[in-house]
Structures are given as structure tokens and as C-alpha cells.
Write the C-alpha cells for this entry.
Amino acid sequence: MADNAKLILEGKEYEIPVVVGSENEKALEISKLRSQTGHITLDSGFVNTGSTTSAITYLDGEQGILRYRGIPIEQLAKNSSFVETSYLLIYGHLPTKDQLANFSHLLNMHSMIHEDMKHFFDGYPATAHPMAILSSMVCSLSAYYPESLNVFESFDSQAPRLLSKLRTIAAFSYKKSVGHPMMYPQNHLSYCANFLQMMFAVPAEPFEADEDIVKALNILLILHADHEQNCSTSTVRLVGSSQANMYASVSAGILALWGPLHGGANQAVIEMLEDLQNSGTSCKKFISSVKDKDSKSKLMGFGHRVYKSYDPRAKILKEMTDLILSKRGVNDPLLDLAKEMEETALSDSYFVERNLYPNVDFYSGLLYKAMGIPVNMFTVMFAIGRLPGWIAHWKEMMDDPQTKIGRPRQIYTGETARDYVHIDQRK
Ligand code: SDX
């Protein structure tokens, strides 16, 4: 603990405790502020407000540092697998060989969805956005696993069940959109190879996932696996704080992620680049429109609430995109356009003064595109990656005896008290 802060309010002095985290982050602990002073704090978008303490992920936005359970993202991307990193996030330590084997076995045991759930897809139009399907299918899983409604039961089977079934539901929603038969999981394959098989195999042809693509997909999912109290993770925690079950909480997180300001940005980046390519608009001209507040246009994939330096994930993704495209002999003009856009923005004072750099979404879409994944599946890929983070935060919150139901206050600015007026008297 550090020395208390002092607050002088309306002539009275108050002591505010200061909380210090393991990376020396400091916070004013204001749980008694209203009862002591009659005041609350107001902080639109929670720019300066912490909702919880957490031991899962550490970000340093100024230094561009990202660590899962203390391990730097660069080391995990280089050495780990998505399954191993999921275990690390959820259980707090890297698994032993036996723990990893058991976790992988559970993922395999839960890779299928109930045959009745396949009929849900019949009701969706082929044009349905897969994020709408994903969220409703995840919430509907609770109908097939009633034991999950008791949030303190069977976490160790629920977590791998959801991690495995989300991947299957995602692949099935893609098959539905292209009118192909759904491909069942093949449990002899790794998590990522199995996903690619369910996505791209067809009954008439043999399928072998490209090793480079499997490796790239593992890294993509690792990079997306957690990011502390972002919008969708905060949604999962808020919904779960009412003791709603894991499927309901994650289903809400999927919908929060869908927004173009959050996980939907990877789809918006590609659509932005394609619009520029098709209209022949130069990067310089587009950047000028972005700087014009009346234009309401944003450089999608740029800027971040926490990173005020280059997003470490974007750095890895940019290098990976170059590698994968050159290895596959693909020359995607959108990659050159993205690099030109980055260069133009980072040499413009508007972006430099506001510390606006590429974030995780700026290059990820180009990689998904190179893998043959359609644009409207990009945010689904983000959700598959972020799921272990959502599960880890849901569990951390459920296990914390200090957890209270999330219920923010407000400052009312509407009409003061007035009487009802009968309709005949209204003007
Ligand atoms: C993700 O939180 C997380 O950790 C999220 C995430 C995760 O892993 O979970 O990292 C994933 O969501 C990444 C972000 C993806 N979204 C986008 O790429 C959409 C474009 N970016 C912006 O909408 C914006 O940068 C946000 C939403 C990401 C952050 O918004 P903030 O923190 O509320 O910042 P702000 O809107 O207050 O911006 C500060 C200034 C403003 O200008 P001024 O009022 O100072 O004149 O910067 C400007 C903004 O207009 N600005 C941009 C901009 N982002 C901020 N101007 C043009 N283009 C942009 N992209």
C-alpha cells in the first residue's frame, strides 16, 4: 500500500486509500467516497476508472508491453500454441505435459455440437452475419447443458467445452453461408488444423491444412487471446457479475466485440482499404478527410484506448503478413496500400500528436484474407481468439469473494419534479 491521498471537498478533508499493483500501477480506492462525501466520480467510457484488480494480463500502453500471466506476448507467439496459451490464461500457469494432454483430450471430447443444434442453422438466411449466429448459438448451448446454469459447477469441463464448440459453430456458420455441407471435427488434428479442416474441406476432396497457415493461425489466436478490461471482456464480467452462466456472459461479449470500434474493426479495415482501392482515393486525400472532424471518417485499425505507442500485436502481425504472403507467392495490393497508409499517417502531426498507431486490427484482416477466410468471418476469428480471455476473466470474477454485481451510478440531468398533465390540457 502507498500513502493515502487527501481530498479536500467543501472545506472538509478526506483520506483516500491508494492501491498499488504488482507492476506499480496506482489507483485511488473510492468504494467509500459517496458514503463519506456525498459525491460520486464521473468518467465517460471509464478512461481513468478501473473496474477491478486482475492477475491475468498486464498492458503498458506507453511502452507497448503485453504479458499474459507475466509471459511476454512475443515469447508466447514464438514458442506456444493457442491451446497452451488458453490453458495459461485460464489456469494461471503453463500446463505440464499431462495437463496439456488432458486439456487437449477434453477439447476433442467436446468438439461436436448436439445434432439438434445443426437445425438452428436452417433458420438463418445464407447472408446472416456469422457474429449474430455465433452469439445466439453460444447462448443456446446452455439449453443443452443445464448443469452450466449453476455457475459454480463443472467449470473444468465447461471451459474446454466452450473453447471447442465455439470453433465448430464458427466453421459451421461459414459452411452455411457458402451452401457447403458442414464438415465434422477430426479429432486427430490439432485445434487450428481441425478448424481449417472444418472450414475448407469438402466431402469430395482430401484435405491437408497447410503447415504455415496452421502456424500463422495459432499465432493470430494467441495475439487475440486476452487484453485485460477491453469493451467485450468488461461486458463478460458485467453480465457474469449477476451470476449469469458462462455461455450467457460470453454470448454478450461476442456482441460487444462485433462493434466496428472494437473487434469489428478488422472487417472495417479491409472494407476501408477496398473502398480506397476501388475509388482510386490516395492515402493523402483519405488522411485529410479523416482529419476533418465533419467528415466523421476514421482511420480504422488505428488508435487505441491504452496503447499510446505501436501495439505490439500489430508489429508481429505486420511481419507475419509479409512472411505468409511472400511464402505463398501472393501479392496483395491491399498490403502495399496498408503500409502506405501507415507511413502516411505516422508522418502526419494529427496522428503523432494523438499517439495514434496501428492496432491489432490493422493488419490481421490481410492475414485472414490470405488464409481464404471471408471478410464477414474476421470478427468471428477475433472471438475464437478472445474466448480464453473471456473465460479466464469470468472465472477470476466468479472466484473473487469481493465480487459485487456491477451497477454503476449516474448524475441525473433531466427534468426536475413536475406533475402529470391530462391529455386534454396538453398544448
Ligand atoms: C480493439 O481496448 C482494447 O484493448 C481493444 C482491443 C482488444 O484487444 O480488445 O485492443 C481491440 O478494439 C482495437 C481498436 C479497434 N478499433 C479501431 O481500430 C477503430 C478506430 N479507432 C478509434 O475508433 C479509437 O482509436 C478507439 C475506439 C480504438 C479508441 O478510442 P478512444 O480511446 O475513445 O480515443 P478517442 O476517440 O478519444 O480519440 C482521441 C483523439 C480524438 O481526436 P480529438 O478529439 O483529440 O481531436 O484521437 C482521434 C479522436 O477523434 N482518433 C482518431 C482515431 N482514433 C482516435 N482519429 C482518426 N482515426 C482514428 N482511428
In short: The mean pLDDT is 96. The CA atoms of residues 81 and 218 lie 6 Å apart. The longest helix spans residues 155-178. Residues 2-60 form a domain with the Rubrerythrin, domain 2 fold (CATH 2.20.28).
